[in-house]
């Protein structure tokens, strides 16, 4: 993991959020996500290399829906950071944001996405963890 320093990169639908430089470089991000088994992976030689970086989203957004989301090398560090912070909920949030706030037919998936969205907004407003711990913020999930 790399030391964090300020960077002017912004994140998708949250243009007001200035991200800090990634916690992970591309190789360490790929390693974490591969070991976590979140990618489809290649089943055989006919599968292209993109399958090795395609998130398995089967039955996530709808019943009996085979789905996946390709993660480019440039996006790997952000996905790894979200996974490191929030587990699979971070991945769900990233895929939702990448697809214009896509919602699932499953309420629990939507609550997971909403949770990360709220927490990331708080992280953007109060970047210092010691101050964020005492920030009085409330939100509700699943309305």
What labels describe this entry?
143 residues; two-stranded antiparallel ribbon; 5 helices; disordered N terminus
Strands, helices and their partners?
Blueprint: E1 6-11, E2 14-20, H1 26-35, E3 54-56, E4 68-70, H2 76-86, H3 88-98, H4 107-125, H5 129-132
Antiparallel strand pairs: 1-2, 3-4
Helix pairs in contact: 1-2, 2-3, 3-4
Give your account of this protein's structure.
A hairpin with a 2-residue loop joins strand 1 and strand 2. Helix 2 (76-86) packs across helix 3 (88-98). The radius of gyration is 16 Å and the shape is flat. The chain has one domain (6-43, 50-131). Helix content is 38%, strand content 13%. It is built from 5 helices and 4 strands; from the N terminus they run ββαββαααα. It has a two-stranded antiparallel sheet with strand order 1-2. It is an alpha+beta fold. It starts with 5 loop residues before the first strand and ends in an 11-residue tail after the last helix.
